[in-house]
């Protein structure tokens, strides 16, 4: 038994009856799966079951056998804890079978506690509230402004997550970009984890907020099939604004013992209760849904991606060019790839992403001062298989750290460029200085962390970023420093460069970014005193070039000086120590890092105060050498 | 020449003339300071100068000679880049002199590029947009609900930062808690850093949003002294709701060459332009403001703080108690201190902060699912010299990482408890697992990082948290494990415990939290095979107990196995390696950590899969021992 439909057809009484049944099947299956697992969120699934039953039967245009079709709609479960519903829905659509459904939350099952993209029908991992919806906005932006495809993007939200600021960043950008191809469905079931939500069933309050943020609000009874159908149909037909369907629902709907009762969040029903619930819901069914098909026709998006020849900018050894500027130059070169898109958080004249904007205005997206949405939209672009680069001050990516974390869980492919790293920035003071970004970004699953020192290496690494999967973070520097490399030098993820090397080297200086320059200065001065230093440009902080480090341990007696414009924890030194920690021969480290809170001042003053300038390195090496001679 | 005033007195023409002059003095002084410094944001200061001139002359109740008076109003510059205005204002109020003003942005000066609390009149560091205002909401909440004092809290916001979701989290909580003692003044100057803001001068759009979020909106011309005075007077007199003054202003106001012109954000005027600007603004003045005094009377807040006797909960060695539960138990004990307040992000039944809520409902604050506001309010409580504890899942503090970073810059004293750390949580899956928190929190300036393994150590460390300045982070575990310690055992920040020790120890096992238990299991099994293990509970991850680690290096030949429920980067192992990196004798490490993305499963399954369970430790030690014997 199946019903197909679309926005053009009127909902018949027969359709409505089927959908009501389907809603209860989704409830029953969610209960069965979670009770079997012994955990999960059945009640949060039951409130949204009717909404989703209508959606998948009549409004979601999706080919479950071809989840990568470009014309498929996108359905993102921002309330990821409603995973019993997600998987019950996948079963109803024929994507998984009942046996797999019953593996919910088991080790090795694809059906994890919260949805992740190991399932081909899941775009992004959710479960950290307030993220799925802003990411869905990014998918809709890609669909509207880059792909120019007719797909619609649906996000199912919980009411608790409407308290997250990121939700409002998302709606703001959805309306700013006129994303009428985006619909959020908010399951207003009144109850959060530990009690009532802030606004409970004050639908008027939600409506006022949504409308004030420039979206159309449709307030409905989320268990009235006709109202749901009407709202979703209007949402898909909308051509001006994004739509937010505000659905008044009942948590635990359909099982009278727990309907609208506090204390049932995130709890599987015990088997006896599950049995009574299933009976009350009409027993186990096996309805199959024939979801409306996506628009036919040539849906292959031809972007001209990896095969395109890129002409990276070239620099002269006489040039002093800030790495942030080289980032902008390289972005323009990368723009030859039609799949490269760039996003920025209202600082593009500082990050130099504005160079790309000038060259490719149609593929540049201004996210204004909203870093969570900046990263969310970037993840959304990656869902559409674009190659997105996002930039802001390195310090301000910390605003979106949870989004970066979840992008790692999603296996998203995004590139982040953080400018103005370290105390090097000078007068603006510590609020603008990233001094913990190497630590935080290194600890992200799937991350690559790059920190170039000159324009040539920056440009080469920007090209590498496009080819590298996962979360690729580039740390750039405010000031302009000498060009160190020839334009034909190559730079690899996981590589390093040895800039000073000799048979008589007694100490290894390791820097990256601005501290590579202070290391080189120090090495030259020490060389004049007869102290021979090896100098390594550790531009790939993660992964790190273990072979070159091992060679340096061997050649210089493990005598390492690591210098970083970063707090002492978790940065460059930790990367080296962790890499060599199991070796028989391990370095003995002198570690120069920013140990006190910097203030304002010139770059030279602040680097001197932090003890990471050439003077400090010279003094540290002299002390080490003197100790070695004693 | 001085004008005093208050909300009760009508603004005379003479007052208005004085204030107009004062506004121009603030502009001139901001220009002088930034031109001298060669950097800064004079134009962003000039747009807000009239607003602040009215505020400090007639509505801010503040004793500049006694900035710690409890009845003083609070004034927080959420748009921290308007620091030329901040310092010009301090001069006009007699807090600093002109000579100090002219040290703006110089190395060693208190007048940094963005305001920081090294100045006694600054509550918190700002400069990361969208933070000062939510923190001000926390200060207002403390004033209303804890201090019960008549002070008013004023936040000056930029229009660009209204795009930050955190602003809306702040307004939402301000209205939820009915904080009529809170006023945000938004300087809508239409221009951001790189061009027009998203909403430009669409004051109606701002008004709609502000009102939808439950605040009173007053739309005014921000250069009309009478309108400003009326709005601020009404804001201070308001008794129901928070007020947001939406002031239409002109960037660069008062200097016709740059008024409302793009391209002048964050730029000091060159000396010749500064000269013309100062002339157009009527030259240099030396007006002094006699700010209205705070309400007299007994303003000493008697809280009963550090001196109170705390009876921590006791546990039996037979108890299996989750550390998150012990956190809740200990919070209740800490509640005997009237200055202890607790905040939670709608998961208090999971973090067990709900234990405190039951005991001290008046000092418990629900922040719902809004982690940025959770931390912001916690910082606000610390501004009021309370002892705030905030809790959510450890993974979700990543949502507020920029707030934690800035709290470090502010030197705020806050305590954060993150529950559900690591893959130990089991079935909920990776979105709920903190696996990067040790790395990110260790890298925060002023941070202390604690990770207890049993209820006794947890309770003792919660007591230590209250005594410890800075950002104190506690990592707690979902599951219940054996009680390891006697109730009279003491635990210090920077300490550790050696739980297995013998003269014949050949290897040191280091764990914390759940991995201490797997280390103990492994040590017992290895002991039965004749491999003697030292076992260290490294509950203080930062600072780390270097002396005990050194002793273990010496006693066990540097043979270390570190086991952590965390990604390999920047966590427990990095803490140990960094601490010993300069030593002559350094450990050789076998490092067991979570290297692949966990899925769902039981705790045992996931810890086995990650290779951090007792089996994995036993195998690792056997391999090490075998290698050592070869």
Q: What is the assembly state of the chains in this entry?
A: homodimer
Uncertain regions spanning at least 5 consecutive residues of chain A? 1-7
Mean pLDDT level of chain A: 96
Question: Biggest interface and which pair forms it?
Answer: A-B, 111 and 111 residues
What overall form of chain A do the CA principal axes indicate? elongated
Percent of sequence in beta strands of chain A: 5-15%
**Number of strand segments of chain A:** 19
- Look at the helices and sheets of chain A and give the structural class: alpha/beta
In DSSP terms, counting alpha (H) and pi (I) runs of 4 or more, how many helices of chain A?
Answer: 22
Query: How much helicity do the residues of chain A have?
Result: 25-40%
Q: Give, in spatial order, the strands making up the sheet with the most strands of chain A.
A: 8-7-9-10-12-11-17
Largest sheet of chain A: 7 strands, mixed
- Taking the alpha carbons of the first and last residues of chain A, their distance comes to 88 Å
Over the alpha carbons, how many angstroms does the gyration radius of chain A reach?
Answer: 28 Å
């Amino acid at each position: 038994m199946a019903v197909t439909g679309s926005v053009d057809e009127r909902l018949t009484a027969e359709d409505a009856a089927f959908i009501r049944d389907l809603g209860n099947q989704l409830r029953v299956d969610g209960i069965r799966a979670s009770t079997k697992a012994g955990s999960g969120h059945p009640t949060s699934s039951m409130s949204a079951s009717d909404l989703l039953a209508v959606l998948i039967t009549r409004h979601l245009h999706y080919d479950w056998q071809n989840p990568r079709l470009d014309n498929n709609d996108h359905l993102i479960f921002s309330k990821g804890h409603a995973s019993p519903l997600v998987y019950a829905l996948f079963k109803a659509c024929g994507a998984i079978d009942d046996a797999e459904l019953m593996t919910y939350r088991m080790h090795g099952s694809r059906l994890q506690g919260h949805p992740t993209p190991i399932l081909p029908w899941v775009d992004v991992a959710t479960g950290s509230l307030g993220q799925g919806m802003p990411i869905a906005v990014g998918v809709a932006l890609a669909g509207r402004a880059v792909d120019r495809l007719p797909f619609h993007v649906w996000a199912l939200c919980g009411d608790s997550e409407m308290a997250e600021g990121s939700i409002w960043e998302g709606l703001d950008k959805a309306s700013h970009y006129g994303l009428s191809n985006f619909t959020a469905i908010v399951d207003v079931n009144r109850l959060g984890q530990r009690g009532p939500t802030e606004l409970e069933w004050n639908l008027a309050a939600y409506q006022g907020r949504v409308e004030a943020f420039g979206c159309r609000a449709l307030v409905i009874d989320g268990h009235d099939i006709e109202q749901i159908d009407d709202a979703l149909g209007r949402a898909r037909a909308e051509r001006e604004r994004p739509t937010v369907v505000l659905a008044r629902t009942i948590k635990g709907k359909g099982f009278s013992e727990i309907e609208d009762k506090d204390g049932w969040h995130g709890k599987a029903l015990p088997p006896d209760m599950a049995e009574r619930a299933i009976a009350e819901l009409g027993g186990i069914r096996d309805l199959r849904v024939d979801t409306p098909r996506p628009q036919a026709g040539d849906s292959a998006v031809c972007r001209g991606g990896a095969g395109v020849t890129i002409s990276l900018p070239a620099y002269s050894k006489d040039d002093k060019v800030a790495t942030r500027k080289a980032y902008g130059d390289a972005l323009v070169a990368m723009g030859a790839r039609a799949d490269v898109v760039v996003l920025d958080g209202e600082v593009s004249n500082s990050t130099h992403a504005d160079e790309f904007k000038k060259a490719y205005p149609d593929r540049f997206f201004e996210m204004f001062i909203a870093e969570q949405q900046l990263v969310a939209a970037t993840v959304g672009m990656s869902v559409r298989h674009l190659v997105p680069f996002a930039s802001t001050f390195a310090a301000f990516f910390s605003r979106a750290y949870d989004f970066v974390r979840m992008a790692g869980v999603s296996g998203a492919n995004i590139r982040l460029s953080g400018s103005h790293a370290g105390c090097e920035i000078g007068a603006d003071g510590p609020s603008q200085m990233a001094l913990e970004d190497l630590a935080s970004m290194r600890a992200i699953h799937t991350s690559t962390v790059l920190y170039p020192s000159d324009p040539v290496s920056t440009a080469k690494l920007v090209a590498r970023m496009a080819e590298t999967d996962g979360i690729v973070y580039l740390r750039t520097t405010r000031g302009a420093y000498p060009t160190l490399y020839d334009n034909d030098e190559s730079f690899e993820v996981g590589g390093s460069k040895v800039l000073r090397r000799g048979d008589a080297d007694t100490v290894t200086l390791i820097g990256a970014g601005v501290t590579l320059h202070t290391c080189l200065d120090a090495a030259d001065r020490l060389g004049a005193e007869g102290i021979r230093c090896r100098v390594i440009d550790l531009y790939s902080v993660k992964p790190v070039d273990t072979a070159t480090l091992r060679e340096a341990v061997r050649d210089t007696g493990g005598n390492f000086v690591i210098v970083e414009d970063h707090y002492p924890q978790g940065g460059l030194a930790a990367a080296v120590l962790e890499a060599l920690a199991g070796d028989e021969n391990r370095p003995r480290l002198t570690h120069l890092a920013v140990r006190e809170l910097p203030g304002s001042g010139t770059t030279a003053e602040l680097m001197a105060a932090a003890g990471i300038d050439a003077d400090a390195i010279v003094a540290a090496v002299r002390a080490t050498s003197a100790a070695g001679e004693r």
